[in-house]
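pinned: reference chain
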Amino acid sequence: MVLEQLGQPLQWRELPTPEPGKHQVLIRVRACGVCRTDLHVFDGELPHPKLPLILGHEVVGEVVELGAGVEGLRVGQRVGAPWLGHTCGRCRFCEAGRENLCEFAQFTGYTLDGGYAEYTVADARYVFPLPDAYDDVAVAPLLCAGLIGYRSYRMARREMLGNRLGIYGFGAAAHILIQIAIRDGMRVFAFTRPGDHATQDYARDMGAWWAGGSDQKPPEPLDGAILFAPAGELVPAALRAVDKGGVVVCGGIHMSDIPSFPYAILWGERVVRSVANLTRADGEEFFEKARQFTIETHTTPFPLRQANEALAALKAGQIQGAAVLVME
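pinned: its structure tokens
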């Protein structure tokens, strides 16, 4: 399924099977998660995507061919290809161990073709062997919603002085993260679209201590908050909800403009920070956790040819958990 023009429906195209280059593997795709970042690319909210483009960066598949120089992987192995597809290894960010900020990074389903296809190629150094306990559809959301959610959580915990964690936007990332947070002893306060009682019930079923609309204040101050909803107006709301010394982490790659707000709600050594991309170390640490206990993912499968319908359902807020494309 090919994005030929921004904002226009994806087109079914018969294309040659790609060939793996040096350090690349050819992957037969079994499933691919549908992420909100795909929508941001589709709508042109992320600048300068490769066009034409095959979207998708929660790619689950089987290695069917190894390119020159590939080590540590074998034909027949199941792997996942995430958002971060390549870094230079030489810029100041890479040398400082912050490859997620690489000046020359390439991204799956954005500047590189992704997984809305039967086959894709990926840099073997940036794919992850996947835990055996998960089937193809269940593991797909872990490759972005899981990874970015986990990095956001790590950033929040670094600053938090207690265990009261707010999550704004209870979708694919939140329903994975809440399981890790509760296991770590966090009390999770879930914020949804105002009036979305079904999702609030869903959050409580997942173990949330409290659930309500994003226009509500929690019943007690928070020690930290993570924003997965791409709505800039939630930043002041979250700042008002966190206690002194608290942190607000913006976990999305795109967000609408943050409105001005009084200094008083930032004062008290509150912190606002963003999370950008991921590192391979994030992935290795996260998938080690995913092997220690089973993270349940709530998914809605769509055939590959219904990728447009899956994107539309995600945009309309009709997906609880994550949408996943499956190959026919």
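why pinned: Residues 4 and 52 are 5 Å apart (CA to CA). The domain at 24-143+278-326 is CATH 3.90.180.10 (Quinone Oxidoreductase; Chain A, domain 1).
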